[in-house]
Amino acid sequence: VNLLPVNLLPAAYRNTERIYPNKMTGYLALAKIKMTLNKNAEAGLLLQGILQSSAYAFQSDITKVFQKTGTHILWQLKPKNTNDATKEATLYNFVGAPTSFTASANLVSQFTTGDLRKQQYVTAVPFQTQTNYKISKYRNLGVNNATEYSIVFRLEEVNFLYAEILIGQGQVSAAIPYINKTKVRAGLAALPLNLTADVALSELRSEKRKEMFAEHGIRFFDLKRWGLLDQLVTVKPNWKSFHAQWPLPNKELLLNPKLSPQNQGY
């Protein structure tokens, strides 16, 4: 694995707030690229480096996952002005009729009885005869936010990616504990270690969706990497399979005919 660019990053954080990327931040970014390129063995080595680092510890209290002081955070973004709300808190907030994005009914239906994420990560907002759900991972609004920054990378994603690699290598019993971390934190029963690879992978994908939704497009890129983007039709009725690729700009096609043919569907 060529780590030269990543190794130029400092091993230690520049400050305690983790708002500047360090080497482990680079490891995670590179591991995600490696997995997209189907270089899972190389990605696994990078993820192991993060998991073995003493700088990180899993946050076992679900009410503190999105607080800025957690040692499960690899990298986060500080709001422009001191005590401003995060962009996420502002974007997803509404009262009454939805004025922004809502959590889809399909997503909300995935939370089984007792899943604490239905209390902590989404909030029911009644309006007339229906109930919509706003995404409420970040809860501090206005200019009184002293506890939240926008988290870009957190240890939970490392756990999911590493579990996926282990399952692909046939090491299912080794992968399950990484999936169970978020399940148990959410108040659910742990998965048994003797699952088949297919069942374990299905459980991982389901668990990751419920844990990582509305965080920097993780769900979209997962579905694309898994070849499952057409599942989006359940929440995006206008979705077409060719939307997995953008069209090539006509200007570029005119400049370089070797780029032809245009991507299918455009």
The radius of gyration is 20 Å
CATH fold-level label of the largest domain = Serine Threonine Protein Phosphatase 5, Tetratricopeptide repeat
The counted number of beta strands is 4
Structural class: mainly alpha
Order of helices and strands: HHHEHHHEEEHHHHH
Largest sheet: 2 strands, antiparallel
Strand content: 5-15%
Summarize the amount of helix as a percent range: 25-40%
How would you name the oligomeric state of the polypeptide chains in this document? single chain
Uncertain residue segments? none
CATH architecture of the largest domain: Alpha Horseshoe
Sheet with the most strands: spatial strand order? 1-4
Give the number of domains: 2
How many helical stretches? 11
- What is the CATH class of the largest domain? Mainly Alpha
User: What is the distance, rounded to the nearest whole angstrom, between the alpha carbons of the first and last residues?
Assistant: 37 Å
Mean pLDDT level: 96
Using the alpha-carbon principal axes, give the shape. globular
Could you give a short description of this structure?
This protein is 38% helix and 8% strand. It has 266 residues and is mainly α. A hairpin with a 2-residue loop joins β2 and β3 (130-135).
What brief labels describe this structure?
4 strands, two-stranded antiparallel sheet, 2 domains, mainly alpha, 38% helix, 266 residues, single chain, Serine Threonine Protein Phosphatase 5, Tetratricopeptide repeat, globular
